[in-house]
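Please, structure for the following, as tokens.
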Amino acid sequence: MFDYTPNTSLANQLCHPETLHTAWRKVRANKGGPGSDGVTIQQFETNLTKHLRQLSREIAEERYYPLPVQKFTMKKSNGGTRELSVLALKDRIVQRAVCDLISPIYEAKFLDCSFAYRPNRGVPHAIAQVAAIRAEGYTWAVHADIENFFDRMDTHLLMRFLRASLKEPLIIRLIQMWLDMGGILQPPKLPTWSTHIENTVHHLGEGVEQVINQILHRTPNYGHDNEYQNTGIEDEWAVDEPEIAAHAAPLAHTGKEMLTNLGRDGLLLLLANAKRLWKPLATKQLLLIAPLVVAALAAPTVGSIVKERMNRPRKIGVIQGSPLSPLLANIYLHPFDKAMNRAGIRMVRYADDLLLFCRSEGRARHALQHAQKQLATLKLELNPKKTHIADFNTGIEFLGHIFDADGCYQPIPESRAKNLQNQLQRTVKHGAVQVKRAGQHATQNSRNIVTQLSERFKKLGTQKANTDV
């Protein structure tokens, strides 16, 4: 396991071939089909070393882009449907590697009330914890379920939590791209000179953005949501609820501010381009056309900056089924866990399914209200159809187990119960048939015995009569 320290670069570790190879073995063990590029596990493995080296170079040179997600719909047992997403194989490998690198950082911070998607923790451990807390005298519980949790996670808040706890620009940039994966397409294959110009403009744009951020006393922007950044957030991304609510809505820009930003960014971009391109263009023949070339290169970037600032999308939701989504889910709900712990409310949470333990029904109502308030700060809410207050003695179902006055047991699923019923009916019917046959056989044997005895008695009677004569 990679040992993370503040002075250790996760970016260097991520680009190491052994890190990607370890991630590849885990992805291969999970199997899975091809993504939008159609590359299967068998095809990738034919040139494994080559593909992993190429992937390592793309990450190191910041040329890695995730491919579009392959989506399809699956029918659920209750008659509904569920949308599943399949990432391209190379994206699953990189996500698995990033998850392995950053998991130890957050595992050291997660609370004991969380049991899902964590090493050496699972349903049996959560059930054992529920039984232990109940034995302490907590006879009432709030069984709650977060409604559409993965689909309603606010990616801006999530990125804010990550930036407060992870000082790794490359990792942050990768996670930001994955969260925006739906809108990212594979870069087109351009000629060499076009690629050079594109990369030049891209780097110039980043340089100008850094200058702008320094002028405005802002931190560097690795996404399109720096209005959510807050330098006052301490490690463990613990923030007060009113502070989150204050940053929930994007800041509005007036027309005057937009024009000011446009003029400033355009000027700084022209200066940055001029500084970088002046040397190759500083000849007598190109001296007059250099400013025009610089302006031509600057115009698309200026336009993209303005367009990005005016049309900042607010994407919500995290793709389910990706290697990184379980860890992101626990990171997102960590502030909720801490808030409930600070309030002195005992809790067992398994992903979006949770139990709040109380000693009375009245305290259970207060615990439910507090949970709703804390989740609202994370743009989440409880599912009213799956949230209720109950007494352990009357029965509470949690993670496929039932707690009642008799203790804890796991009910037989309906499908399995039906199979057992059918087997029992077949067994009883078969037994009845066997008994009937046995009875018929016994009756026939009895008749045979009676017939034989009758014949013997007749013979004896005949013999006796002959003797008397």
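Confidence is low (pLDDT under 50) at residues 1-6, 183-236, 238-254, 309-314. The CA atoms of residues 459 and 465 lie 10 Å apart.
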